[in-house]
Design goal:
The protein has helices spanning about 5-15, 135-155, 155-170, 170-195, 200-220, 230-235, 235-260, 265-300, 300-325, and strands spanning about 25-35, 40-45, 55-60, 65, 70-75, 75-85, 95, 105-110, 120, 130. By secondary structure, the protein is of the alpha+beta class. It has two domains: about 5-20 and about 155-325, no CATH class; about 25-135, Sandwich (Immunoglobulin-like), CATH 2.60.40. The strands form two sheets. Strands 1, 2, 4, 5, 6, 8 and 9 form a seven-stranded mixed beta sheet that branches. A three-stranded antiparallel beta sheet has the order 3-7-10, with no helix packed on it. Helix 2 (about 135-155) runs parallel beside helix 8, helix 3 runs parallel beside helix 5 and helix 3 (about 155-170) packs across helix 8.
Length: about 325
């Protein structure tokens, strides 16, 4: 069974490559009104998520796209068009043509001058959506719930933090309390930043988030059976709460990029938080299930496998910290 350890290490390192850091987000289509008839269309196509190169934005009927301006962005290509609309866009469709199956969905943000911001999702099955006069409450809830789930599952630094907590701690109740403390903390920060009570610059926050993952990886490696428990094992809920406050700034940054619908901000915040929580629970239960299987069929490799996984997480987090600090 020890022959499996190098494979486990290489697998985890491959899954947590720096190219899959938190900057990787679903595709993003932004349609913003700038004057009575003038709009700006921005299409951000992230690299490596399965979106076909031929995918092209479709604007509402009565709108004409001008010359595109393309500019590279980190792990994405951003294209902008000026758009002129001679009639109302309400009730018209917007989305992507040639949008084939992809690893993630695409978020569509519509921002008129005189109405609420709308956030919609398009998929390969439904590549076009209808622009409503105002976003409905349940449409808002469904959209932001899915955005929350996707952010925790595809925002890989948050995913690795939760995974590291599971690897570090023992006992389902201890893990439940710790993850709950993390959730409460990032919810406090997320709401506070979104409502404008406080805020921090996003780049330094992302660097310190990477450092928090590196801290947990070191704690996993240094933890030994029979030795005095380390601080993160004695009061894990406090450690998770303090780091959760920090991660909340990261969630708030992602939400700021998307925008919140006016008049439905509370619903959007609640749905986004619930989505993040569902994503966290999926990570926790999946990790616990895998560990249970290893314990049952190859119990002797459980501790070494955790240590190898911690090295993979730590190497990745260390790379992210250096990359983000230099940025």
């Amino acid at each position: 069974m020890r022959a499996l350890l190098p494979f486990l290490f290489l697998l985890l390192t491959a899954l947590s490559t720096p190219a899959l850091a938190d900057e990787m987000r679903p595709g993003y289509l932004d349609f913003t009104q700038e004057s009575e008839t003038g709009w700006r269309l921005v299409w951000k196509a992230p690299a490596g998520n399965g979106i076909a190169p031929g995918a092209r934005p479709v604007v509402p009927a009565g709108c004409t796209m001008g010359e595109p301006l393309r500019m590279p962005a980190p792990r994405a290509m951003v294209t902008r068009w000026p758009v002129e609309c001679t009639s109302t866009v309400i009730g018209q469709k917007i989305g992507l043509a040639n949008f084939e199956a992809s690893l993630v969905d695409v978020l569509v943000r519509i921002a008129p001058l005189d109405r609420s911001v709308q956030a919609l999702r398009i998929t390969a099955a439904e590549p076009l959506v209808v622009i409503a006069e105002r976003p409905g409450r349940w449409q808002v809830a469904g959209t932001y719930l899915t955005i929350g789930i996707e952010h925790i599952l595809f925002g890989f630094d948050h995913l690795l933090f939760v995974l590291a907590l599971v690897l570090l701690l023992k006992g389902g109740w201890t893990i439940a309390k710790t993850v709950t403390a993390f959730t409460i903390a990032h919810s406090i920060t997320l709401v506070g930043v979104t409502m404008g009570f406080f805020g921090l610059a996003q780049r330094p926050v992302e660097a310190v988030i990477a450092l928090s993952i590196l801290f947990l990886a070191v704690e996993i490696v240094k933890s030994r059976e029979g030795e005095p428990r380390r601080l993160s094992e004695r009061i894990p809920w406090l450690v998770a709460f303090l780091f959760g406050l920090l991660h909340g700034f990261g969630f708030a940054g992602a939400l700021a990029e998307i925008g919140l619908p006016e008049g439905e901000t509370p619903m959007a915040l609640v749905a986004f938080n619930l989505g993040v929580e569902f994503g966290q629970l999926a990570i926790v239960f999946s990790a616990l299930g895998i560990l249970a299987l290893i314990n049952r069929f190859a119990g002797s490799v459980t501790a070494p496998a955790k240590r190898f996984a911690a090295y993979g997480i730590g190497i990745t987090a260390g790379y992210w910290f250096i990359e983000r600090a230099l940025a």
